[in-house]
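User: what does the whole thing look like in 3D?
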Amino acid sequence: MEYDIAIIGAGISGAAIARELSKYSVKTILIEKNPSVSMGTTKANSGIIHGGYAAKNGTNKARFNVASLPLFEKVCNDLNVSYSKIGSFVVALEKDQIEKLYELKENGLKNGIKDFKIIEDPKKILKMEPNLNPNVCGVLYCPGAAIISPYELCINFVENAIINGLRFLPDSEVIEIKKEDKFKIIIRSGIEIKSNIVINAAGLYADKISSLVGLDYFKITPRKGEYVLFDKNVMKINHILFPVPTKISKGIVVSPTVSNNFFVGPNAKNIDDKEDISCTLDGLKEVIEGGKKLIPNLPLRDAITVFAGLRAVSNNNDFIIEQTEIDGFINVAGIQSPGLSSCLGIAVYVVDILKNIGINLRLKTDFIPTLDKPPHFAYLSPKDKDELIKKDENYGRVICRCETITEAEIRAAINSPLPARTLDDIKFRTRAGMGRCQGGFCTSRIISILCDELGKNPTEITKHGKGSELVIGTTKHLRRDTK
Amino acid sequence: MSEIVDSKIITCIGCPKGCQVKVSKFKNGNIEAEGYSCKHGKEYAIQEYIDPRRILTTTIIVKNGILPLIPVRSNQPLPKNKLFECMKEIANIKVPAPIKMGDVLIKNILGLNVDIIASRDLESKIN
Amino acid sequence: MKTYITDIAIIGGGPAGLAAAISAYENGVNVLLIERDFELGGILPQCIHNGFGLGIFDEELTGPEFAQRYINKVMEYKIPIMLNTMVLEIRPNKNILAVNKNEGAILVKPKAIILAMGCRERTRGNIRIPGTRPAGIYTAGLAQRLVNIEGLMPGKKFVILGSGDIGMIMARRLTLEGAEVKAVIEILPYTSGLIRNKVQCLDDFGIPLLLQHTIIEIKGKDRVESVVVSKVDENWEPIKGSEKSFECDTLLLSVGLIPENELSKTAGVELDPKTRGPIINNYFQTNVEGIFACGNVLHVNDLVDNVASEGTLTGEIAAKFIKKIIKIDKNFVQLLCGRNIGYVLPQKVNKTAFKNSVRFYMRVKKPENNVYINFKVNDKLIYKKFERFARPSEMLIIDLPKQDILIDNNILIEVIPKEKKSEN
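Assistant: Here's the predicted 3D structure for the full assembly of 1034 residues, as structure tokens:
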């Protein structure tokens, strides 16, 4: 297989770059070791588009965050991605933290952000955010900050890129890269891919991929963040709420999500194991304690799930986005927070790098900028629901009762340009199983639909790929074999 | 009064109360119970002491039914130590739909004079 | 959009809804029963074990048999039913929006509604168990559906967290089907399910029950590989150094049930934070006039017989309400939970109701033996009942008999040990 450009890693950075490149007449392949896109850092992420004041002026973080901000609205509109500019608060709970708010504001002004202000009237603040800690002394209010679904953005980037000619290769771990006249990329399965350009967007493993071509100049450390997610309709949180930040982290946040839930988290702990996304007893305690500082009446019994994600932190603590000593090998590494907020700017910049090194990038005339998605049945008016069911009766069967996801939406996900094949795929594509019962109702029904569409047996259906099979056999099989 | 040679505390499972019934065996062979609060409790405890039995509830594979399994039960309690043997017997059987509640699906299982009967109606699949 | 007009719409075709439908029909009104699954019975078709029906039929039935008796009655009466139909919204004006494949979106306009949606299971997230998130973690009810309805075995080696009834029943069920249940783990010092289930589901098969223990970590990347279990202190905090690991491929959770009231909320029905079900008066009526509730949507019952009898009563009341045989007075006194009372239903009582007896459902917070359940008004004892065992797993039902006392103030219910004097 021969390509002009190979992108390694289908997280938010690789996906954004793939979609940006799909505007041009180049043959691109996106290589991913997991069965689906968005399965690493992007999956377990705060889903916040930061206002641009926090990243230190002069860093890549600040540069790309600010560069991306004006682009989100259009991209989300085009790609049918849930996005909501709800604004953020940095919350000072003590008088001496107010000074810090002014420092942040100063930094924000340097970064070129204008649309924000400091509010020091607790009454006014509490009116805007009634469940906030009543000891609040002041907030830095940034109306431009937004919430987004990070995995929806990632999935839709790739689906749109596929429509525009991208080749997506899942289940493909890169184990070797040889530089000959072209790069020869060897996949664990034995497949070989030739490409003129390699873009390393391998997230936590970007250092490993880079070292495959002998470039060992940076190291990626996983920094774990744990989260607790709460049910919808139990407490109204209006803004993204940050505590006053510390040196290593923006602190434990309380934020609504685009699906009307809200979460607390993440904490920040450097670890060694790049696969360790387990939640810990102490970590969850820390998250809850942190959340209670902002929202004292955290409705703990309405927590619906806990999860952890790993940020890919480089040793210079900034994004590394550059053409390397090896011609045509581009690193996009160390994309930790605000990585999601920066993905659009990063993608545009990577295209600029390619142009600068002489790659002939010609805009396609037939590029399709938009992505059609099946309508979200849950949000339609009764009349529209009725009409939709008359067109496709599968909209008339609700499979996920918590999120009101229909059979039609699940079948559409399985038949989309980026076909859902696992239970988690269905969950991240449609939200079925993400609600308060966490799949208690829909799991067995989704297994049947997957079997039907894919022509498989239930024992072959997995949660997230090989090894995560959901059932082991039929009810009678164990007893039949006994003596 | 004869001398007690053996006694055992049995938790009655007849209803949710869970009475603790003491069953005693006397030298003369008599078996008596105390601590029960109804006649079912007395009967259960003595039976449990002499010959523990259980109703077996499980499922049988159905051919051509609207569901792959039919829930079934034993029409009488079975000796406790025969439960696994019955399960194996049942695991190797398939019954055709339609089925009506109470239909005998296995007659005299393992020669124990107990039948396995259907717990519900089950229609056949319309092909 | 297709519109249906009926006297009473019942949401949920489980035991509460079935019983309510039959009883409302027998009281001479039109009924429409709406069920989201492809058949009636609610959770009962998957509860294939016996132990049902002693209260109502005076014989021991399995879940499917119990359901079948009610279903047969509904069929005999030709009560209109809508299967495969999901209610999406109940409006405060009692219009119901539902969908199904054949008819699209449907508007149902009843004179009264009976909520009978049952309950759902608490999940791993509700109790925030640390660890990884592999395949092989199931709520006990989902596992029960897989094993008994779908014919699929979720795993081979199990650990069960929580000694709720479904968890213990699944321990036996899985063992009978040839799986190995390594242990049942319970954080409380006593089982949270019925004692008879501990005896016939765990003891019978030698399945260890670890009281005052919990799971502090789930391990395994793709599929569950093991769980780490720890002893807990009286504050439920894990005790360091007491950890042990159980190798297993599946973890079942039987950690409680929550009344399913998302629809009730859309109708403006007020919920009780203690039961998480609607606040009702002694007519099973919620704060919204004409909306009634019964069964597990109201409070989690331990016996289906209670669920069905609540349904029967509610069906009758709702029918008489729309026929204007019953007029519901708007003045109520409140029921207050005193010492060791977890919750009480109904939460509000009509004074006039005391012309007849009123039935109260309650649960204690912690187990106590030999106690009086005292009913007090203005510190004056108006009724007391002796209970040999008062356990959180067993709902207490007390019929407060015909009283000559005028009740003008709130009623306090408390549990007082026999030897102790009433606390003030």
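In plain terms: Chain B has two domains: 4-50, 57-118. Chain B has a mean pLDDT of 92.
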